[in-house]
């Protein structure tokens, strides 16, 4: 008897309901087991550091007075630390107690226009006016060793000359030479063809002139020996933290001048010992410090990276040298107008005072006025990326007294028509430095490790200062970073 349609439908519905019930019970059982599985897992950190984790890259500014390479006093100011994701303030990044960028033996490469000009090793750090600075030594670049030229020992037989060569015989090998000893004289003549079986007399070596009696006896394996006790006076340094990131370290170790006085035998272990020499309470001796902002202070960009990277010059090469002078004159005119130094056009003479002019004589053309000079002018041109255009930076001030002096900073680029396109213009004076600081160009530097240069400026205000990084991209000047937090300064464009 064949099943009816109703029985078949009931069986299908019952089977579907059973599957749903099983799925629901399985989900409930899995949800009940999740807390147990979570409790069984290790609660600590078990993830390992990826191999492609980027290394740290620190940017600082070296300030010194005196001669480059042999400064009278110097200091290094930390600016940024790039951790692979964003820029950190190097003045407070991982300060334990000094920041990581100023740790001992960290080495910085001093650069100008992207070219390395020297090395600077951190020896110590301290605080000046509430900010961390580092002290150390300026070292020259290591001189590469020249490879030695090797001379072949043998000459190829194909290039050897078949012509016989005469050699002069030495005086000691001359035939018929005689030696006189006492009253007897002996003469000998060396044969032409020496017999290989003929015995020969050889001179005894001085090194083997010792008698058999003076030779040392063979060593006895059972004979006791005196061995020097190993020196355990040196204490081992504490194990460094493996998770603490590191910057580029200097190769030579810093020596310390410490003299110890050994205690007498049988003395009290609690008895204090006397030591002579320099005190090592503060570690390495601090180099001469640079205080304040002297007028003859010079600055250079310093970069510390765990990897050795090739230099990236930022100098721009003009296709036509006349274009540089043309662009410089145009940017200077913009700076003069911003400082109120625009040259006044000469006024034409009045008709009443004008002398009669003959019809054949040409009217006199007034000579152009000389442009007003710019004080402390600095004009530099950069190529901030491979194949990019020119980026011009001009900083200057007028020749007014210091109390009423005005300052200007201009960042510009040439446009498609050969004119000057101003990307940033900052104008301030001594009375408004607390609101708008003076922008002083330091140099271009690759702070983000992407082969693009950023412009590093010092923002010097009234009694305080900061450092700022600007990125030039698509005809704009974007402020990327300002040290000590916050945005300091204003930006305007034409």
Q: Counting H and I runs of at least 4 residues, what is the number of helices?
A: 2
The count of strands amounts to 19
> Terminal Cα separation, in Å?
97 Å
User: In sequence order, what are the helices and strands, one letter per element?
Assistant: HEEEEEEEEEEEHEEEEEEEE
Radius of gyration: 42 Å
Strand content: 25-35%
CATH second-level architecture of the domain at 321-341 and 370-482: Beta Barrel
Largest sheet: 7 strands, antiparallel
CATH class of the domain at 321-341 and 370-482: Mainly Beta
Q: Structural class, judged by helices and strands?
A: mainly beta
State mean pLDDT (0 to 100 scale): 74
Shape: extended
CATH topology of the domain at 321-341 and 370-482: Lipocalin
What does this structure look like?
This protein starts with a helix and ends in a 12-residue tail after the last strand. Among the domains are: 57-141 and 296-305; 321-341 and 370-482, Lipocalin. It has two helices and 19 strands. The model is unreliable at 8-24, 33-47, 174-188, 208-213, 253-265, 277-282 and 487-494 (pLDDT under 50). It is mainly β and 494 residues long. Strand 13 and strand 14 form a beta hairpin. It has helices at residues 5-40, 321-339, and strands spanning 57-67, 70-82, 87-89, 107-112, 115-128, 131-139, 178-181, 184-187, 258-259, 276-277, 298-305, 375-382, 391-397, 406-414, 420-429, 438-445, 454-460, 465-473, 476-482. It is extended. The strands form five sheets. A seven-stranded antiparallel beta sheet has the order 3-2-1-11-4-5-6, with no helix packed on it.
Main attributes?
single chain, 494 residues, disordered C terminus, seven-stranded antiparallel sheet, Lipocalin, four-stranded antiparallel sheet
């Amino acid at each position: 008897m064949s099943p009816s349609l109703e029985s078949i439908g009931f069986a299908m519905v019952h089977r579907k309901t059973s599957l749903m019930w099983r799925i629901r019970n399985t989900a409930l059982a899995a949800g009940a087991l999740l807390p147990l599985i979570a409790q069984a897992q290790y609660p600590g950190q078990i993830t390992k550091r990826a191999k492609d984790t980027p290394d740290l890259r620190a940017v600082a500014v070296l300030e010194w007075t005196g001669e480059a390479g042999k400064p009278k006093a110097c200091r290094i100011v930390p600016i940024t630390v790039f951790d692979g994701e964003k820029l950190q303030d190097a003045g407070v990044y991982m300060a334990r107690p000094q920041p990581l960028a100023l740790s001992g033996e960290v080495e910085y490469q001093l650069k100008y226009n992207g070219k390395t000009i020297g090395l600077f090793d951190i020896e110590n750090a301290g605080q000046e006016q509430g900010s961390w600075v580092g002290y150390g030594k300026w070292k020259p670049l290591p001189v590469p060793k020249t490879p030695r030229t090797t001379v072949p020992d043998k000459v190829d037989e194909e290039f050897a000359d078949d012509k016989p060569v005469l050699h002069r015989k030495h005086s000691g090998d001359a035939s018929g030479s005689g030696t006189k000893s006492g009253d007897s004289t002996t003469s000998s003549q060396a044969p032409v063809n020496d017999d290989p079986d003929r015995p020969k007399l050889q001179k005894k070596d001085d090194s083997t002139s010792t008698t058999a009696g003076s030779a040392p006896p063979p060593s006895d394996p059972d004979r006791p020996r005196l061995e020097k006790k190993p020196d355990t006076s040196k204490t081992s340094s504490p194990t460094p933290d493996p998770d603490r990131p590191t910057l580029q370290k200097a190769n030579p170790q810093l020596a310390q001048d410490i003299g110890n006085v050994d205690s007498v035998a049988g003395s009290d272990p609690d008895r204090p010992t006397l030591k002579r020499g320099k005190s090592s309470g503060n570690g390495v001796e601090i180099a001469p410090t640079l205080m304040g902002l002297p007028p003859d202070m010079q600055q250079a960009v310093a970069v510390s990276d765990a990897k050795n990277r090739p230099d990236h010059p930022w100098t721009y090469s003009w296709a036509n040298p006349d274009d540089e002078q043309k662009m410089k004159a145009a940017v200077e005119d913009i700076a003069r107008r911003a400082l109120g130094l625009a040259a006044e056009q000469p006024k034409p003479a009045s008709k009443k005072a004008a002398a009669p002019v003959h019809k054949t004589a040409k009217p006199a053309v007034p000579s152009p006025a000389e442009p007003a000079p710019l004080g402390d002018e600095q004009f530099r041109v950069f190529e901030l990326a491979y194949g990019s255009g020119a980026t011009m930076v001009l900083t200057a001030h007028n020749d007014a007294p210091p109390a009423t002096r005005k300052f200007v900073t201009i960042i510009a680029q040439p446009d498609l028509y050969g004119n000057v396109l101003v990307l940033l213009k900052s104008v301030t004076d001594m009375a408004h430095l607390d609101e708008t600081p003076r922008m002083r160009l330091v140099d271009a530097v690759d702070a983000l490790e992407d082969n693009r240069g950023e412009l590093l400026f010092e923002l010097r205000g009234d009694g305080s200062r900061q450092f700022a990084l600007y990125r030039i991209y698509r005809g704009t000047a974007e402020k990327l970073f300002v040290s000590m937090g916050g945005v300091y300064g204003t930006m305007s464009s034409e």
